[in-house]
Amino acid sequence: MTAHSDRLRRNLVVGGSTGVLLVLLFVYPTSRNHVSTASTPAATPGVVSPKPGSGDLTANGSSEGTRYGPVQVRISIRGHRLIAVTPLVYPASGGRDREISSYALPQLQQEAIAAQSARIDTVSGATFTSDGYRRSLQSALDAAHFRPAG
Q: What's the whole-model pTM score?
């Protein structure tokens, strides 16, 4: 009778442990099984503010959904030059999302300013973020009626 009760006890421990591990597996947030949340709430797309007398213009792009969360940017234009692209919303729900955003967003900004357009390359390892960034950037440029000088 002790062999039967030992086997039953062992089965209960193994079954219970497996159940706990499965619950932890599905509850633990990762970029693959957790819906990404934006770093901040989305801003209203369109022209935000022409700064009186300065010739500066600020415009928000649309919030663009990606596989890992929305991406939205704000542009700043001085004269006929794109001078800044600021990410307002980007994937940041997990450590990997934050890591990708921290290296991809500065590269995307640098390329956009150099190109003076949304025709920029995809950052390796950040394909979805790059695509959302490009779409949001183009919508901001369209809202500002931006045409580069020259």
A: 0.70
